[in-house]
Amino acid sequence: MPDGSQIECTGNGVSQYQNASFTCKQQPTGIWFGATIAWNSTTSLWNLTRKDGTVYAFPYSGKLQSITDRYNNSIVVTRNASLSQCTNPGTKIDSLINGNSTGRYVALCYDGTASWTITKAVDSSATYKVVYGYDSTGTLLTSVTNEKYNGNPQASYGWTNGRQLRHRPHDLRQQRAAHPDLGEHQ
Fold first, then answer.
1. How far is CA 37 from CA 32, 46, 56, 61, 66, in A?
2. CA–CA distance, 9 with 34 (Å, rounded to integer)
3. CA-to-CA distance for 1 and 9, rounded, in angstroms?
4. 46 by DSSP, 3-state: which?
5. Which of 68, 73, 79, 153 has its CA 20 to 30 A from that of 50?
6. How do residues 125-172 score in pLDDT, each as one tens digit?
7. Residues 22, 38 contacting (CB under 8 angstroms)
8. Average pLDDT along the chain
């Protein structure tokens, strides 16, 4: 599940995965209640279909590949993509309507010392570029900076023995005056 939790789904008793299906009934009031999981032989992906028609598609043994709503709007996740915004291969999250790219996407770059840490996120127009700073080990987040706004960090993080010591949102009043589209600071 998105929050890391697990829900038990009961299978139909078929041992071959191509014919197997599962129904999730453990969470009687949540969005996953009544969801089904079945192999899609056309796409060669597992489809987790919620009752509202949203389909999450996964390869046989892998990570989320796409999410499609009942109106055929979708986002597609492409990992290890060559992206101009990234030094190393990154992840592209692309927006599609009726199977056609809208041209809008977000590039996630992993250019730091640790291959699993996102060092920056850039939208397709390159209007917004958020840079994430980490400690020397590459594991603890130390800053978040939106480069559109003078490259000043919007937040800083401090750590002691792997535990967060402080979170300091920076005063954005001057940046808001120069960039009214920054909006209100939460």
1. 11, 7, 9, 14, 14
2. 9
3. 12
4. strand
5. 79
6. 877 788 888 887 777 888 888 776 665 656 666 666 666 665 665 554
7. yes
8. 80
